[in-house]
């Protein structure tokens, strides 16, 4: 039966065309068509897995080893229900603090960088209730697809990545914050979101006894039993191994170099001292995507939002460290249990492409960890990390073809704070687009190529 394509005018200024959820069986074709996936973070690797499974011949290109970008030390949350974008009307009231306070979870360091200013203005334009609600609905749909798609990926690859159906508790320190969260919960129920329950403090402690040491800080929480956690870096490493074993070619250690175009198509690019030819290209370059797109005449509103994480060893006996994922809503810090480790992550700085680790930010996260879990974070084994979220102003990723870019170049980029969560579903959508574009091994009925149109209301 034919499948209708869905057209969404994304608030980031692009019109995206998606096919409905669909997971075709693996194909075995005598002459598969060639796709080059640029970028071996979680988004590129999930895309390579999906494309290879759908019968394409895949080459993956990265300037580094797989999984060393934003995917390496992220917050480890598979956050299918918590997708509300940072661009929200509440930002306006917080602006002075954001600009002036170094302790704020979201901070802005202005630079002489036109890309930063342009992104910042589009971000502010997206801080409207209607845009935020639209983005939330778009992200919720993609997150639900991603939940199923990741289950398939894990079942197929048997990747060992500390995956845990941990559930999540978001804890609130004020009655006002808790009340606002309950209102958001009602909205998400209307949108058909996942099961979520508002719990009293006593109920929260039953769900996660390790919160006992900081119970006095909280008034209650929202529990989402269906949320999961996993180690994204370990998943990237596992995917690299599985894909190599299945014949995916990796060209690593060299940035994308010269590009060769013929008419409106990209036909080859240089990497690793060779020309890599392909019928189609998928750019999954994280924060590198905007610069790459500019070289080809396309403008992508993707800019880095720097964040930090710590990975702490958990005491041998366990018990005092959480097994449920915890978010401290006020500090915007997340905690995820990864085997015998606890990942603590947060902070968002609009400060350019600098990945240096600022010791004051590490201390800020360390303080949050020892306040929320005083009995789990005493050890000296702390691995600090900083990474750059590839963020669009609205928080909605860019999937598909973009006006100005070569016709056979597809984007899978701009997943911001949710790239781990959304990688598998985004990969599935991009594979559908490639099949519909006629560059794939088969044309699936009803699939159609994405087309970017001029922004109706750009963010
Ligand atoms: C502190 C922090 C916490 C986070 N927590 C979560 C979370 O809990 N849950 C969640 O879902 N998401 C989270 N995220 C977001 C998530 O990590 C990112 O959205 C995701 O990793 C993006 O994946 P990616 O593959 O697009 O980018 P990356 O992982 O950055 O990969 C891009 C790849 O492209 C390569 N590349 C770039 N430019 C070039 C070039 N010119 N030539 C060749 N190669 C190039 C890079 O080397 C890199 O390997 C967090 C991010 C941060 C920073």
Architecture overview:
- With 459 residues, the chain is α/β, with parallel strands linked by helices.
- The chain has a single domain (6-454), classed as FAD/NAD(P)-binding domain.
- It contains ten helices and 22 strands.
- The chain has helices at 42-53, 91-100, 114-125, 129-157, 175-190, 201-207, 232-245, 289-295, 359-372, 419-436; strands at 6-9, 15-18, 34-38, 57-62, 77-78, 106-108, 168-172, 197-200, 220-224, 228-229, 249-252, 259-262, 265-271, 274-277, 280-283, 303-313, 325-328, 333-338, 341-350, 382-391, 398-400, 409-413.
- The strands form five sheets. Strands 6, 7, 8, 9, 16, 17, 18, 19 and 20 form a nine-stranded mixed β-sheet that branches. A six-stranded mixed β-sheet has the order 11-4-3-15-22-21, with helices on one face.
- Helix 1 (42-53) runs parallel beside helix 7 (232-245).
- The longest helix has 29 residues, at 129-157.
- Flavin-adenine dinucleotide (FAD) binds next to helix 1, strand 4, strand 16, strand 20 and helix 10.
């Amino acid at each position: 039966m034919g499948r209708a394509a869905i057209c969404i005018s994304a608030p980031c200024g692009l019109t995206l065309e998606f096919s409905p959820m669909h997971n075709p069986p693996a194909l075995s074709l005598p002459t598969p068509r060639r796709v080059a996936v640029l970028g071996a973070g979680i988004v590129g690797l999930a895309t390579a897995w999906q494309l290879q499974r759908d019968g394409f011949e895949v080459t993956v290109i990265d300037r580094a080893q797989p999984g060393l970008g934003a995917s390496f030390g992220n917050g480890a949350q598979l956050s299918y229900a918590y997708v509300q974008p940072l661009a929200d009307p509440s930002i306006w009231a917080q602006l002075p603090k954001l600009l002036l306070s170094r302790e704020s979870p979201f901070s802005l360091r202005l630079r002489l960088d036109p890309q930063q200013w342009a992104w910042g203005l589009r971000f502010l334009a997206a801080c409207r209730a209607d845009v935020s609600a639209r983005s939330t609905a778009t992200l919720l749909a993609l997150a639900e697809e991603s939940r199923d798609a990741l289950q398939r990926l894990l079942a197929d690859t048997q990747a060992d990545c500390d995956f845990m159906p941990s559930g999540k508790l978001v804890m609130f320190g004020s009655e006002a914050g808790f009340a606002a969260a309950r209102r958001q919960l009602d909205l998400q129920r209307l949108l058909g979101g996942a099961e979520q329950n508002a719990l009293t403090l006593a109920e929260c402690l039953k769900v996660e006894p390790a919160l006992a040491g900081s119970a006095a800080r909280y008034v209650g929480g929202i529990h989402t039993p269906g949320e999961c956690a996993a180690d994204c870096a370990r998943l990237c490493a596992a995917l690299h191994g599985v894909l190599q074993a299945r014949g995916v070619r990796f060209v690593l250690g060299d940035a994308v170099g010269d590009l060769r175009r013929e008419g409106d198509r990209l036909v080859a690019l240089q990497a690793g001292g060779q020309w890599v030819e392909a019928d189609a290209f998928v750019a999954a370059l994280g924060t590198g995507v905007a610069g790459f797109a500019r070289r080809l005449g396309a403008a992508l509103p993707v800019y880095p939002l720097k964040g930090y994480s710590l990975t702490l060893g958990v005491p041998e006996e366990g018990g005092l460290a959480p097994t449920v994922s915890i978010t401290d809503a006020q500090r915007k810090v997340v905690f995820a249990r990864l085997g015998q480790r606890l990942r603590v992550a947060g902070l968002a700085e609009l400060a350019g492409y600098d990945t240096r680790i600022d010791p004051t930010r590490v201390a800020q996260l360390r303080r949050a960890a020892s306040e929320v879990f005083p009995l789990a974070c005493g050890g000296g084994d702390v691995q600090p990390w900083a990474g750059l979220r590839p963020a669009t102003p609205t928080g909605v990723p860019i999937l598909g073809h973009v006006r100005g870019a070569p016709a056979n170049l597809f984007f899978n980029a701009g997943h911001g704070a949710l790239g781990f969560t959304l990688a598998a579903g985004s990969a599935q959508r991009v594979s559908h687009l490639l099949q519909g574009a006629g560059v794939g091994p088969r044309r699936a009925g009803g699939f159609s190529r994405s087309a970017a149109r001029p922004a109706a209301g750009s963010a």
